[in-house]
Write a structure and sequence with these properties.
2 copies of one chain form a homodimer. By secondary structure, chain A is of the alpha/beta class. Chain A has helices at residues 17-39, 63-66, 73-85, 103-111, 153-186, 205-217, 226-229; strands at residues 5-7, 46-51, 54-60, 93-99, 116-121, 146-149, 189-191, 194-195. A 6-stranded mixed β-sheet of chain A has the order 1-6-5-4-2-3. The first copy, chain A, has a two-stranded antiparallel ribbon with strand order 7-8. The A-B interface holds A 63-64, 66-72, 75, 78-79, 82-83, 86-90, 102-108, 110-113, 125-126, 128, 132-133, 135, 138, 140-142, 225, 228-229 and B 63-64, 66-72, 75, 78-79, 82-83, 86-90, 102-108, 110-113, 125-126, 128, 132-133, 135, 138, 140-142, 225, 228-229.
């Protein structure tokens, strides 16, 4: 099974240069989609589906925006591609996605009988194209997909890291701002220059800030769950 | 992991009678949905999602009708339930489905964080709630669902068997009718009472009919792939 996974590196692989260039071209289109998610404060994941050299379906993560567990990049792209082709079978198509698909999206790829999947970066704690499971290549299913990973990997993972770094910083600011506001509400001035602590206030402000800093220290390398678990 | 699967039989189980009656009541609603698929000549699979004792999402298989690999009963029900709840998290919901979910639908259940799944009959060759895989209870995912199987099992599997029996009979009739038509076209009367075989006709009509009969003999017990593989 493993020999069906083509692990592409920047230094070269079994693929010829033309194929790699084509894959990179379409992965760039998937990254463009991911940036649309980024702009909505959604985990930046993008996808395109290609048929006969043309993109027939695009999608990006809109889970929080649409309030739907189905609003993953791959599902949207599959929906659009099926509409375009006029068939539930997306045979002869290639799916490009910036992050390793989750269990639902890997399942949808098999259901749609997509023969080839190209992945940007992996999702070690939740991915189902080789990380937690490899649902794309289960022999007992009636379809398996060829898999190429690591195409524009640095760009894809860099975008994710940047997103989560900004998210943590924003959350930290919000927490600090919230704590400051809470502080102003709780410690009302009784006399000018004297502040009285309101009874029942559960913890020190400084402690909240400490927690926030601890959270900020979390490694930005850890993309676990990322787009799919937030 | 196995002890989390409550295997319910008609003779009784760990569940009390009230719970079983509730499950049967909602499975009957899922069967109603499946019958809508049946009426469209789609593999009869139906699903309902229940929240606080009320159905908040219904769905039935429309894969061929909608020409979409996503048009499975569970996906439609999840889409509707999320819209109703106004959240991608369907926590505190129970999903009832007449046939064991495929890899995509099991994945969607986990993505939606549905805590409990009730299944009518199993799908030994393609099901992903215990048959080929059990995607509902993978420890490494951030969510697992409780699973109850075999609720109104005979009704659910009986409906599937009936559907495939009728499908085979219809296909057989169509094949025979097509063969008869082909026969009429190929063996044109040259003189009254004399039929001439057209040059290049590849095989005997009787052989085609033989193949059709062979197909007709296939066991109706075999639901392999059923709704998901046709």
């Amino acid at each position: 099974m493993k020999d069906r996974i083509q692990e592409e590196s920047r230094t070269g692989s079994g693929m010829d240069k033309a194929d790699r260039k084509t894959d990179e071209r379409f992965m760039r289109e998937a990254i463009k989609q991911a940036r649309k998610a980024y702009a909505l404060d959604e985990t930046p994941i993008g996808c395109v589906i290609v048929y006969e050299g043309k993109i027939i379906g695009r999608g990006y993560n809109r889970r929080n925006t649409d309030k739907s567990p189905l609003a993953h990049a791959e599902i949207t792209a599959i929906k659009k591609a099926s509409r375009k082709i006029g068939d539930w079978r997306l045979e002869d198509c290639t799916l490009y996605v910036t992050l390793e698909p989750c269990q639902m999206c890997s399942g949808a790829i098999i259901q749609a009988r997509i023969p080839r999947v190209v992945v940007g970066c992996m999702n070690p704690k939740a991915g189902c194209a080789g990380s937690v499971l490899n649902l794309l290549q289960v022999e007992r299913f009636n379809h398996q997909a060829e898999l190429t990973t690591g195409v524009l990997e640095e760009e894809c993972s860099g975008m994710m890291k940047q997103f989560f770094k900004e998210l943590r910083e924003r959350k930290k600011r919000e927490k600090e701002s919230g704590a400051a506001q809470e502080y102003r509400q709780l410690y009302r001035p009784v006399k000018p220059g004297v502040r009285k602590r309101k009874a029942g206030y559960p913890a020190e402000i400084s402690q909240c800030q400490g927690e926030s800093r601890d959270h900020g220290d979390q490694s930005i390398e850890d993309l676990s769950g990322t787009g799919r678990k937030m």
